[in-house]
């Protein structure tokens, strides 16, 4: 491991100043929040920046609150804060459960949701769950604020679609209604997820019909992805969903364009998608895996 190259840390007073710094330093500067992934990449000389713009102290970036039918989570909120938040546990428990299993306690105590999403590490948990839940990201730059769908924010492996002067300020997640069931499951070796799968089911009043399904798979492709074909197959009578899951899992795997790599063969990943999709469906419908 190489020693870190010299760099300067700048602490903007607000988002406007942060946007100006990003524009001014260009490719030589980047935002710094938790730094759990950024500093490691810099130490390995995979990334080089002369200027880090520290936004940890910018007011309002770590807020978590209910807003007009959504759960708002500030980009500066750490994984540990989200995991332990009473608001998150009450309104979106699947988010709290997912965060409780991100990496390790040290990373969760330091790393932020915004940093995780902007770094766009393919083997990441939050993006996959947020994609299935219909989460959207808020970005603010010199020209104002805009909203991006999760698949718009994630442009590729280690790439996001933010403009040079934009700062990710937070995430909005639609609050689930009483008939919605959510699950997030993953398979991992040590602290690195090999596959993550999120499933959201909208049931009818009786619970006997799956009106709508949203499923996403991550860690097996540059960005997490959904499959409309798989979701269409899952929708239908809840009592017979097990009979449709194998075909749905195949459609989800096909949409992810699986490849052989050091994490495992494409066939092995395809098998895992089937296993986790069955478990996620059972968790949504029966409360167990």
Short descriptors:
single chain, 5-stranded antiparallel beta sheet, 289 residues, globular, 36% helix, alpha+beta, 15 strands
Description:
The protein has a 5-stranded antiparallel beta sheet. The protein has helices at residues 15-25, 38-43, 79-84, 86-91, 93-99, 105-110, 113-119, 126-133, 150-153, 228-234, 242-255, 266-286; strands spanning 8-10, 29-32, 51-54, 64-67, 70-74, 136-141, 144-149, 154-156, 159-160, 167-174, 180-189, 192-203, 209-218, 225-226, 236-237. Helix 10 packs antiparallel against helix 11 and helix 11 crosses helix 12 (266-286). Helices cover 36% and strands 28% of the residues. The mean pLDDT is 95. The protein is globular. Strand 6 (136-141) and strand 7 (144-149) form a beta hairpin. The N and C termini lie far apart (41 Å). It has 289 residues and is of the alpha+beta class.
In short:
With 289 residues, this protein is of the alpha+beta class. Helix content is 36%, strand content 28%.
- Rg estimate, integer Å: 19 Å
What would you call the shape?
Answer: globular
SSE run: EHEHEEEHHHHHHEEHEEEEEEEHEHH
Question: What is the chains' assembly state?
Answer: single chain
Count the DSSP helices: 12
Q: State mean pLDDT (0 to 100 scale).
A: 95
Main β-sheet description:
5 strands, antiparallel
Query: Could you estimate the helical fraction of the residues in percent?
Result: 25-40%
- Compute the number of strand runs: 15
Please report which band the strand proportion falls in: under 5%, 5-15%, 15-25%, 25-35%, 35-45% or over 45%.
25-35%
């Amino acid at each position: 491991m190489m020693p870190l190259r010299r760099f300067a840390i700048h602490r903007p007073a607000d988002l406007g100043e942060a946007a100006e710094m990003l524009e001014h330093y260009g490719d030589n500067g980047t935002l710094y929040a938790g730094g759990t992934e950024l500093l490691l990449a810099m130490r390995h000389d995979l990334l080089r920046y002369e200027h880090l713009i520290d936004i940890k102290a910018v007011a309002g970036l770590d807020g978590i609150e209910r807003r007009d039918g959504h759960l708002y989570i500030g980009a500066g909120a750490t994984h540990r804060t989200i995991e332990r938040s009473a608001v998150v546990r009450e309104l979106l428990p699947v988010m709290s459960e997912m965060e409780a299993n991100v990496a390790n306690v040290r990373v969760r105590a330091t790393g932020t949701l915004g940093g995780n999403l902007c770094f766009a590490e393919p083997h990441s948990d939050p993006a996959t769950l947020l994609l299935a839940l219909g989460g959207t990201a808020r970005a603010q730059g010199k020209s104002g604020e805009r909203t991006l769908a999760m698949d718009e924010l994630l442009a590729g492996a280690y790439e996001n679609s933010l403009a040079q002067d934009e700062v990710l300020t937070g995430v909005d997640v639609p609050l689930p209604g009483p008939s919605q069931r959510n699950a997030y499951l993953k398979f991992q070796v040590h602290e690195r997820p090999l596959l993550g799968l999120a499933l959201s089911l909208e049931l009818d009043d009786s619970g006997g019909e799956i009106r709508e399904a949203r499923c996403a798979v991550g860690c097996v492709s540059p960005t997490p992805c959904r499959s409309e074909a798989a979701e269409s197959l899952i929708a239908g009578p809840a009592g017979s969903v097990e009979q449709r899951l194998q075909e749905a899992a195949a459609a989800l795997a096909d949409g992810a364009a699986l490849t052989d790599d050091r994490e495992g063969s494409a066939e092995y990943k395809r098998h895992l998608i089937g296993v986790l999709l069955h478990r996620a469906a059972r968790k949504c419908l029966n409360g167990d895996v």
